[in-house]
């Protein structure tokens, strides 16, 4: 929340959703006397698909970003992405690079998704595949995001499912700017990888009719 509060771009609303946690986010929000933070407390845990969909339904802005509770964004993440989407109305979203951080917030590496020095524009995907960009650092045009929904039944890989729907229909942009800090190392384990792979295959099965070849190929790739 502090990383959102520190943004150089000021015209934002942050919807904080407490997914039935033991440690109430409302206590954390007491540190921010700012009406741009809006708090929603769910009485029971509905999982990542359900909570992301609730956030999408509540959002009223022109663009959509998400920040998971164990991650944060750089102070200049929003401003350049808003500028690019204003300049390029043909793009459904823009994404950027991610810093990978450890348990003590130390930098372990940077994950880039383009070699271009400036904005790289790509057309819609022609079949299902490993996504060329991640969900986390993306800023999505709200009018596009509202045309789709997060699968409430998915507790993992719901972001892959949602982003794939968009990228199969719309062009998108990528920059090398580092805008998102992802705590992958401390949250990743073999059990999570296995669950993620099976959830991804479940998503790919949705495309067995429209993209029969690529969905089968990508399912085998996911199984490794």
Describe this structure in words.
With 224 residues, the protein is α+β, with helices and mostly antiparallel strands. Helices cover 34% and strands 21% of the residues. It contains nine helices and nine strands. Strands 3, 4, 5, 6, 7, 8 and 9 form a seven-stranded mixed beta sheet that branches. Helix 2 (25-29) links the parallel strand 1 and strand 2 (37-42). Helix 8 (190-204) packs antiparallel against helix 9 (212-223).
Nutshell version of this structure?
This protein is α+β, with helices and mostly antiparallel strands and about 220 residues long.
Counting helices, strands and paired strands, the structural category is alpha+beta
The secondary-structure element order is HEHEHEEHEEEEHHEHHH
Per DSSP, the total helix count is 9
State the end-to-end distance. 37 Å
Global outline? globular
Helix content: 25-40%
Q: In total, how many beta strands?
A: 9
Poorly predicted residue ranges: none
- What is the radius of gyration computed over CA atoms, rounded to a whole number of angstroms? 17 Å
Question: How many strands, which pairing sense, and closed or not: the largest β-sheet?
Answer: 7 strands, mixed
Mean pLDDT, as a whole number? 94
Beta-strand residue percentage: 15-25%
Write out key terms for the chains shown.
alpha+beta, seven-stranded mixed β-sheet, two-stranded parallel sheet, globular
List the helices and strands and how they pair.
Elements: H1 2-5, E1 14-19, H2 25-29, E2 37-42, H3 47-58, E3 63-64, E4 72-73, H4 78-87, E5 93-101, E6 107-111, E7 120-122, E8 139-141, H5 142-145, H6 158-167, E9 172-182, H7 184-187, H8 190-204, H9 212-223
Helix pairs in contact: 8-9
């Amino acid at each position: 929340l502090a990383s959102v509060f520190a943004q150089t771009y000021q015209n934002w609303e942050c919807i904080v959703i407490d997914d039935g946690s033991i440690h109430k986010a409302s206590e954390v929000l007491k540190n921010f006397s700012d009406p741009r933070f809006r708090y929603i407390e769910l009485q029971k845990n509905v999982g990542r698909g359900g909570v992301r969909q609730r956030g999408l339904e509540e959002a009223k802005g022109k663009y959509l970003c998400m920040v998971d509770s164990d991650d944060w964004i750089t102070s200049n993440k929003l401003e350049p992405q808003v500028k690019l989407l204003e300049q390029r109305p043909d793009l459904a979203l823009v994404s950027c690079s991610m810093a990978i951080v450890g348990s003590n917030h130390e930098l372990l590496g940077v994950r880039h998704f383009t070699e271009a020095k400036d904005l790289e524009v790509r057309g819609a995907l022609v079949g299902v595949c490993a996504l060329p960009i991640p969900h986390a650092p993306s800023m999505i045009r709200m009018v596009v995001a509202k045309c789709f929904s997060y699968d409430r039944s998915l507790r993992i890989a719901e972001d892959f499912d949602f982003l794939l729907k968009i990228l199969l229909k719309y062009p998108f942009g990528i920059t090398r700017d580092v805008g998102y800090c992802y705590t992958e190392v401390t949250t990743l384990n073999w059990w999570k990888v296995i669950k993620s792979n099976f959830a991804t295959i479940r998503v790919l099965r949705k495309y067995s009719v429209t993209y029969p070849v690529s969905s089968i190929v990508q399912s085998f790739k996911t199984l490794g």
